[in-house]
Amino acid sequence: EVQLVQPGAEVKKPGQSLKISCKGSGYSFTNHWIAWVRQMPGKGLEWMAIIYPGDSDSRYRPSFQGQVTISVDKSISTAYLQWSSLRASDTAIYYCARLSRDFDGLDYWGQGTLVTVSS
Amino acid sequence: SSELTQDPAVSVALGQTVRITCQGDSLRRYYATWYQQKPGQAPLLVIYDKNKRPSGIPDRFSGSSSGNTASLTITGAQAEDEADYYCNSRDSRTNHLGVFGSGTRVAVL
Fold this sequence. Notes:
The complex is a heterodimer. By secondary structure, chain A is mostly beta strands. Chain A contains no helices and eleven strands. In chain A, strands 2, 4, 5, 6, 9, 10 and 11 form a seven-stranded mixed sheet that branches. Helices cover 0% and strands 45% of the residues of chain B. In chain B, strands 2, 4, 5, 8, 9 and 10 form a six-stranded mixed sheet that branches. Chain B contains no helices and ten strands. Chain B is mainly beta. The chains are: A mainly beta, B mainly beta. The interface between A and B is medium-sized, with 25 and 29 residues.
């Protein structure tokens, strides 16, 4: 069974750093792109960035370039999304999802990590 | 443009049929995928490759496409179909990244 497991929630203060994880299992982790998707409170879904665990090739949507960093540790089948200095506007749910090799889309999703940034 | 446009909300009587549309230039080149999201849950894939359903998705969900418009149809809507629905396609401007539609909230009356 394919699974992407994310921590449920993180609470941080503005200016702090954060790294959230997404652990894949039940499939060949290095052979599928992993996407990060943001959902701000009460809003829709936004593609942020993708990474290929096989070689760490990464692509960012321009609006997120320089704001976040994505990475992987393929030895433990885990992808990461990190911020160096959080802002209140980063408060959102962040989902990781697997890009299908058979069609243009995301076939499996993590449960999402709620990141709350508040002083 | 890489944007995908959806109607914000639609309603359907229990057991009736509702169609949700998604418009965008990228749909002329790429198939749409459709996701269902219920409150407090992660999105769930319901349609891919224009009109294919993953295992476990009821056959009352179907997809179609014409020109720059993709559609998701629920035939015989059930109470459990009340959710937000998002279309998605590849973004022709950014290699491999996709773009989501703005989402349609479906209310089953």
